[in-house]
Every structure is written in structure tokens, then in C-alpha cells.
## 1
Amino acid sequence: MSKSSVIDVFLRVRPTKNPSNLFKLNKDEGTAEFTIPKNPDQGYINNQIEKHTFNFAGVFPTDTTQEEIFDKIAKDVVDSAIEGYNGTIFAYGQTGSGKTYSMTGNPEARSSAGIIPRTLYHIYDYARRESELIIDVTISYLEIYGGSGYDLLVADNRSRNLHDLPKVQAMATANGQTILQGLSLKKAQTEEDALNLLFIGEQNRVIAETPKNDASTRSHCIFIVILECRKPTSDVKTVSKLCLVDLSGSERIGKTGVEGILQREATGINLSLHFLELVIDCLNRQANGENIHIPYRDSLMTLVLKDSLGGNCKTRMIATMSSEPDDLPESICTCRFAGRVANIKNKVTRNEAVDPFIIIEKLKRENQQLKAELAMIKGQSIKDHLESYEIDECKKKVDEFLNSEDPAAILVVNDHLKMNECFFQLKHMLKNLNKKGSLQPVVSQPQNLTTNNTVELQQLNDEVLRLKQLIIQRDNEIMILLNLIQKGKGSQANQSLVLQGPISEQPEVQQANTSSILQPIEFPKQVEIDRQSQILTEKPAIKKQNFMQGSLDSEPMSQTTKNTTTAQLKELGGMLSEPINISNEQLLDRNSALEMFRKSYRKAQAQEDLKQELYDKMMTSKELGLFINNQRNVISQLKDKIEQTRKEQVLLGLVSSDPNQVSTEEEKLIAEYNKQKDIYKQSFDKLKQLKAEVERMSTQLKHSREKMQQDFEKWIDMMLKQRNLSMAATSVLSDFKNLSQKGGEDVNSMVQQFYKNKEICNQLLQK
Ligand code: ADP
Ligand code: MG
């Protein structure tokens, strides 16, 4: 069920040296008040206005801690995300007003860590506390600069330039979904993984210097956390997306005094913000009942935040400002913008999805149970004997059954062997009692029993039939689900974040066929800016090529059998360096066939080389191992010698017993000791590296042997087929010969024989 929710807007004022007395915060009422003197000369504000009051969901004065900001603004958005609701928190304000401080802060120092690191602590803390909930965390970090997107999660990016980062492209799929292609989605299993990803992203953020603030970024950064949560017993999982957005400075270009390239960049940045403001204005008009198109698609920024603004998302905004007298005009603009954002209404829905993996597990369990039941009804057992504790269990059950006062008591066992055991126990007891003469023999009624037995047998047969059908049905369901997952997996490999629509649909929307017809989304009014910083996006082209290749590879599967045979022959030709002349006898002797195949196998040489290299490496490892052992002895002897020398010199009175006083001889020995230790360490590291290489090469060799075996099987299979074919063809020819020799004698039977052989030939061809 969806519910309507407004965007809550908060105001945070950063500490400054000279706060203006024209500005006042009222924490209890959640208001900010600007008192501007009525002086047209100074009038940066409409001189009619003396007092301007803005309302917020909460206002935070300069002494507010980072913890309080997280608790009051972000915590419940994160909690909702864990429950399956999308969430967005974005910071808006002029450069230097504290956006980055509020969003990121200093993640290394807990007290000054901002909303993003605190969100991560909170999620993992929650997961630790609620052991009944499984939370999967995936992280993306996107930077938007001059209208283009860049992936911030590339580790080891040695380049210092933003344009060296992988470019992110918004794409439209055939079914109208928008995805971000090229943006990495990284799984973070632990809090440490997640913080490390944040760290990598921070390193990659481009920091350009402006006269206003050295460390302020002039791009927009969006930290995206995707949460998949489920209980171990539930089929349903929730999937939600948390966007934590640090916008670029909201100031107008003239104020910052940046020039040249920076000015051009600033224009692009403000253009993005302009589109954001435009979208917010349109949303406001929509909220007032106007039927209006919302231009989300005019910029990457608004496209990414589509869900967050007017969509399925719990959204919060932190307006940041400074109360320095010079900053007041921008601060008033910030508050005005905040007021417009506060009017926007979002529709928030819980994103729930049935998890096919969980259902498969459940169905598998159910199937096992059904199979056991079926086996029992059919008188089979999955085991051939009972363990002693199971026999004890049966005894206990029989005792309970016999001692029960309840006339409706029944003896329940779930296994044919256990049932036999219970009967055996009962028989044993009955015999003992009979011997003692205290129990009357049970009077059986054969006629009744027979009728009962027939009825029971019929019921059992019906039950067997029902269970069999159920198993087939379950197997089908498992197959369907597995297929679905297979498709989903294929799409996940594309590593694209689905922007709009329930994220839970992510696996389904990106099936191979739809992703092959992705259309890049152009942002019309930013084409010029994009051109300036164009980096060719080769990804779609590469993908198309792979896709084509894939279809070529898989084509023979869907072609006629004849084509299959041709393709197989082609494949076999490809694996051999030269054709193999093999006789029928050799073909039927697998060992000599394998030997001949190996000689002509194209990859055999590479395999031999690998073997040789592996052998060499193993020998080097062995020698190095011996050397290291020897080195250990050298080191321990040197150590003994140092101690010995020390004792002798103290006894001779050459040095005092103060360990800090060292003789020249001792010094030499210590230097030698250290040198030998270094050699030891280096050799040890080398050996470790060698061992890893040996392991890797052994696996490679194993795989290459397995591949050769598979290729050999294919080859011999084909050769045997060909042999049978040529034998059948020879037989057809000889029929022809006979036919012409016999000259019409017994023609009918010969013609029949001819067609029969021809049919065999065709069948063989089709195999
Ligand atoms: P922005 O991202 O809006 O350009 P920053 O977050 O980088 O601004 O803040 C500019 C400077 O002011 C930074 O050195 C930051 O540490 C400091 N700062 C901002 N807000 C606060 C605050 N609330 N408390 C302490 N220092 C702050
Ligand atoms: Mg900043």
C-alpha cells in the first residue's frame, strides 16, 4: 500500500567567526528569521521586506552535533529503508555552508562522521542486533559533473583527472525502464567493506579549488545503498534504495569569482541545479492541481533523483547556511528553495518481492518429504537399516502407544523401516505376554481384513499417484524458477543500476534481449557541455558485439540437425592442428585413439609448455625450500654466536653487562644476523609467491586436461558416427551393384532393401 508523504526540510547553520545579528533561529518553532533593513542602497533583498520568516521541519543551530543531525534527520529514513522503503537525503546550500560536512564529515573520527558513514554504522549495527534479519548491502557512488556521470568506485585509480574515471551513461530499456550503465554495484558484506568503498569514492572525488573554499567539491555526489532484507523463514524480501546526495554549491556564478575553465565548469554545475529547481517548480505546480509535465529527463541529475522527488521515496533535505553578513543573501535563497521543496508530495510504497531462491529451497525440502512419504507408501526406504537411537525411539513410541489412555491414540512413524521395527516390538511383546498367559490372542476376522486390505490398497495406490504427480509438479516449478534466476543472473552481470520503478524488479527487467536494445538517454540542453568533456562510451558497442558472438555460438543449437553436424565438424577441425588418419581398429581402441588425438590436438603444445613451466617452478620451489631451511640454521647459529660472544666478553671484562653497550665484534655479528634475516625473509616471500603460482598453474593444467578429455570425447563420438555412416553407405552401394548384376531378379526385395539402408543412412546423419 502506498502512502503520501511530504519532503521534510531541515536547516543547519554552520559555525562562523562573525555571525550576523540580522539572523535568528527559533529551535522550538522550527523557524529561521532574517531582518533586513529597509535601505535601497544595500538592498540585495526586495526593500519592502523587513522581516522574512521561513518554516522548517527542524532547525539546527551552530552547536548541533553530527550525532544529533543523524538521529533527527536520517535515522528513521535508514530504518524505513531496512523495512523496504526507498529513501533520499540531500544537502543543499552555498559552497562552504557545510553540505559535505553534514553528508560525509570525517568518517575516520566517529564524532565528526557525517550522515553517510553513520548510515553504514547503523545498518550493520541493526544487522548485528537483529540476527533474525538477513541484510544484503550493495553500494554505488556516482559523481555528476558538468552533466556527465562518473563511477567513483574504481579502486587503484592512479589518474588525477575526473575524466579518467569510468563514465556512467543513462540508458532506456525497451520496456521504458531507465538504467545507469557503467556504474559499479559493489557488495559490502561487512561494515569495513562498506566504509572502505566510501573511502575509495572519497579519494576519487574531484577537488577543485575555488577562492571561497579550498576543499569544496563543485560536483554533485550521490552515495547509493541498496538494501535487500529478509527473514530466514520468509519467502518475501524487501529491496530498497537509499540515495545520500551532496549537491554542488547553490551560489550564482558571479559571486564565487571563479574564472576560465572553472567558470565553464561552474556553469555546467549550476545548469544541473537549474534543472533541479525547474523540476521542483513543476512539482510544486503539480501539487497545486496543475496538470504539468515534469522535465526529469532534461538532466542526469534529475533523472537519478526522479524517485526521490515526487516518486516512491521518503525524502529529506538539509538546507545548510552560514550566518556571516556576506552570506545572508545566498542563505535567504537557500531558505526560499527549501520552502518550495517542502511542498512536494511523494508516494511511498514498500518494495516487497518474492525471492525465488527461498521458494526453491522450500520446494526442495517439500519434495524430499514427499519422496520419503512416497517411498514409505511403496514400502521402500531411503535407508537400509536403523541406527540404535532410532530403534530406541521406536520402543518409546510403542510404549507410549500401549500405555496411552486415549482410545484414539495412534502410532505415527514416518519411515517404512521404523514401522517394521514398531511391529516387531509389538509382536515381541505379544509373544512374551502369550507365554505368560495373561493376554488373550487377538481374534482376527479374515473376511473383514481382506475387504479392508483391498480398500486400503486402493487408497494407497491413489495416494502414490497423487504424490507422484505432486513431485512432477514441484520439479516443474523448480525448473521455471531456476530459469527465471538464470535470466536474472545474466542481467546482474551487466552491472547497471535500475533507476525507476520498484528495484525489486531489477533482475527481471534486464533480460539479455532487452539489454541488447538499450538506448542512451541524451540530455538535450546539455549536449554542448557533454561534448566538451566527451569520453566515448564504448560499453554498449562491446556488449552488442559480445551478444552477436553469443548468438553465433549458440546458433547451432537452434538449427537443424544437419547444421549441427556441420558446426560440430567445424569445431572438431578447429581443435586439431592436422587431420588424423585413423584406421577402424585404432578408432575402436580408445587408448590408441586418445594417443593419436593428443598428437594432433592444437592445444597439446601449450599444455606441454605449461607442464614444463610447472615442473621448473616446482623444482625452484624445492631448491628455495632447502635454501630457506639452511638459512634458518645459519640465523640460529648466528644468534647463538652473538650470545656466546657477549658472555665471553662480559667474563673477560671487555664490555659491561649493560645490554646497550655493544662491542665492535658483536656489532659485526648483529649486522650479519640482520642481513641473513633479510635474505631469509626475501626468500620466504619468494617461496610464498612461487607456491601460489604453482597452485594456479596446477589448476590451469587440470582444467586444460579436462578440456582435452571433453574434446576427445566429442571427436571420437563424431568419428564413430562417421565410421558407421560410411559402412552403411558401402552397404547401399553394394545393394546397387547386386541389383544391377542380378538384372531384375528378385528386384522387389532388393529395392526394399535399398530404401531400408537409405533410411538408416538418413537416421545416422541426423544423429
Ligand atoms: P560545502 O560542502 O557546503 O561546500 P563543507 O562541508 O566543505 O562545505 O564545509 C566547509 C568547512 O566548514 C569545512 O572545513 C567543514 O569542516 C566546516 N564546517 C561546515 N559545517 C560545519 C559544522 N556544522 N561544524 C563544524 N565545522 C563545519
Ligand atoms: Mg562540499
## 2
Amino acid sequence: MKVILEEQGLRDGLQTLAQIIPTKKKLEYIDRLVDAGIKRIQIASFVHPKLVPQMADAEDVCNGITKKEGVIYSGLVLNLKGVERGITSGLDHLACSISASDTHSQKNARLTLNEAKNAFKEMVKLSQENGITVRGGIQCAFGCRYEGRIDPKHVLDMVDHHLDTGIDELALADSTGMANPKQLGDLMHKVVDKAGNIPVALHLHNTENKGYANFYAALMAGVQIFDTAFGGLGGCPFIKSATGNIATEDTAHFARQIGYETGLDIEKIAAMSREMEVILGHKLPGQLYQLVNKEEIKMI
Ligand code: ZN
């Protein structure tokens, strides 16, 4: 059986870091991740450079890549302006995303939920008119730091709304890492059913240490695409308990042990995490890269 990991390390992983990683280094890492077997990779987000300085070189990164056949290079957009930038950057896949939490939406995107839903429709339309495939995302689909638990009925309504816009694939995000495997498994079963032949992806954070349990629950519910970041890169070292996505190499190893193949060279990815630890001067949240230092990863 197969499971696809979409690498988010260069976007979600880097975006909150105070230390700016040079464009050249980002391009090197994109190539090395693809060389390690990554078939989907998010390389930038088109957000305001003042808000996210790490992403100020989004266009340079997109123009600098050498696209390999069979690999999806994606950019994250949160509004129409982002879509316009995504179009001129030459990407052929955009992740358009809005929040399931009204409070989070108002604070983060300065849009009420209804305004965001209308804007989302326009974002999908404009992308597809320009030949771009769209992943329609729902942030904070399980929990929100402002609102607490998000009602699954509300999320399913948003899923219907997303699917009605004609998106090419659907993604739910546990942006805050608050979901638990029971709640998440139950909801993802319903989402996978609703989506039919539209692929469903899940974006997981390990903030409350449930990321890998949630990965397993979603896998059992039929989800086949997961967002991960090498080394579990992400979060902010200055914010209490903020962590990144589940780690690419840890997830690939876990998947392999339970009979799911990712096609990734785990050791190559772990080596990149070890290098990133040196560049950043602190440990990354991933575990496996620390274990396998110059040793083989043991399959048990
Ligand atoms: Zn995220």
C-alpha cells in the first residue's frame, strides 16, 4: 500500500523562524528532497513579506527551481492577491486555504467566515482559469486556540462548500495540533466518503504530541496524502510548546513498519535534518534523525 507525503519543511517549517534561510539554500534543499523521493513539495507561501519575512523570496524560489517531471511544486495562498502572485510565479499547483474558525479567520485573514468562503470561491476560479490545479484547504478543522473544539458538522458543511467550488483535491489541517485520534478518525471517515474520487490530504502538527497517533487514525480512515516536514521543522523556539508538522522521516519509517510505502530515502532526509540542526543551532522536534546518526535505520 502507498501513502504520499507532501513536504512542508521549506514553507511551514521555515516560516516562523527568525533566522532567514538564503534563497540558494532553499533551492538546494528542494532539489535534495526531490532527490530523496519527495513527489509533492510546498516551496513558498504568497503572504505579505512584512508578516512573514521568511517568505519574502517566494517568487525568487519559484523562479529558481528546476522542475522535475512527476513532482508537484506547490505554493500556499490565503487570498486573491496570493493567487495573482502564484499565477505569475509559474507554479501549476496552489493550496488555497481558509480557516474553519471565525475568530482565527478574523485575526489571521481579517475576514469573517462568510467573507472567507466567498473569497475562497473566487480564489479557486481564478487559479483554475489560469490552468492551475487547486488543493482546497480548511485550517483549524479540529480545534482552535481561540474557539476550542470546532463542531464537526460545521467542518462537513465547509467540506461541501469546498467541493462545490470544483477543487481538484481537499485538505484538512490540524493547524494547532489539538485534534485527538478518535475525533479526527471519525471526522476523516466522513470527509473521505464525501470527497468520493477527490483526493483527501491531511496537514498535521505535533504540538500536543498526538501528531503520529492522528496520522495513524487518518490512515485507517482512508486518507492517503499527509503533510510532513523534514526533522519536524517548524514552530517557534520562543513560543512555548509550538512545534512543526510531523517529521517526514519519522512518518515514512512509521508508515513502512505498518505496511505503507512512501518511496522515500529516509536516511537522505534524516541527513538533511541533521544539517538543519547545525544551521539553526538547536534540536529539531523530529526524533528519528537523532537516532540514526551514521547508523542504519533498523526495521523491526
Ligand atoms: Zn501548518
